[in-house]
Structure formats: structure tokens, C-alpha cells
């Protein structure tokens, strides 16, 4: 795996042949890529389950915190609104970040299993 400007590239070998890219707006079916290894496929499915929701929740959290900043500039705004926005934004960022971390870990394990099974 190689990181490129917010995307992840899955590459093969030292020459770096690109097998696929994973990003916010695009992605490959990792389970299909590693289908020859059952443990790798299980981990790839875990990646697919966590990646998109994690990305969306992080984006929602950032947008909510942006809304907090905008609303906080208004004079005499109800503090419950700003507090709610901070709590919702932070919660979304933390939960989404956790889902993304789980997804990246599953992707790494999936590729590890696939490479291991190639050698045996």
C-alpha cells in the first residue's frame, strides 16, 4: 500500500504496478482482488463495511464543526445550539475516525493474508 494525496494505492512488487486506488470518490473491490485467499477476503469485507461510513462520518463531523464556527460568530446565539454542534461534530469525528482506523487495519491484514497465501 502507498499513500498518494489522500488516496491509497495498492501496488504489486518492487516495480510498483498499480492494482487499484482507494479514495473518497473511488475505490476498487478489494474482496475481488484478494478472492483467492479466504482469510484475505474476510478482512477485505471488513474494510468495505467500515471505510465508506467512516469517511462519511468524518466529513459530517468536519461540516458540523464548521457550522459551529459560523454559528458561534452570531451575537446572542443560544449556547445550547453551539454546545450541541460541538458535541455532535466531535462525536462524529471520533466515531468516524475509529471506523476508518478499523478499515485501514482490515485492509492491511487483507493484503498481508493475500501475500502470505501466495507464498504457500
Descriptive overview:
The chain is α+β, with helices and mostly antiparallel strands. It is built from three helices and three strands; from the N terminus they run E-E-E-H-H-H. It has helices spanning 30-33, 38-72, 79-119; strands spanning 2-4, 7-12, 17-22. Strand 1 and strand 2 (7-12) form a beta hairpin. 22% of the residues are buried.
* Measured distance between first and last alpha carbons: 21 Å
Structural class: alpha+beta
Helix content: 55-70%
Largest sheet: 3 strands, antiparallel
> Ranges with pLDDT <50 over ≥5 residues?
none
Give the overall shape: elongated
Radius of gyration: 19 Å
Arithmetic mean pLDDT: 91
Which percent band covers the strand fraction?
5-15%
Instruction: Provide the domain count.
Output: 1
Strand order of the largest sheet: 1-2-3
Order of helices and strands: EEEHHH
How many H/I helices? 3
Number-wise, the strands total: 3
Amino acid at each position: 500500500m502507498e499513500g498518494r494525496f489522500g488516496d491509497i494505492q495498492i501496488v504489486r512488487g518492487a516495480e510498483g504496478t498499480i492494482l487499484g486506488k482507494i479514495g473518497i470518490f473511488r475505490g476498487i473491490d478489494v474482496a475481488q482482488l484478494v478472492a483467492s485467499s479466504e482469510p484475505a477476503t474476510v478482512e477485505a469485507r471488513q474494510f468495505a463495511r467500515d471505510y465508506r461510513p467512516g469517511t462519511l462520518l468524518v466529513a459530517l463531523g468536519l461540516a458540523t464543526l464548521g457550522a459551529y464556527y459560523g454559528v458561534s460568530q452570531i451575537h446572542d446565539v443560544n449556547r445550547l445550539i453551539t454546545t450541541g454542534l460541538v458535541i455532535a461534530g466531535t462525536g462524529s469525528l471520533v466515531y468516524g475516525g475509529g471506523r476508518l482506523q478499523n478499515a485501514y487495519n482490515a485492509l492491511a491484514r487483507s493484503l498481508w493474508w493475500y501475500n502470505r497465501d501466495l507464498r504457500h
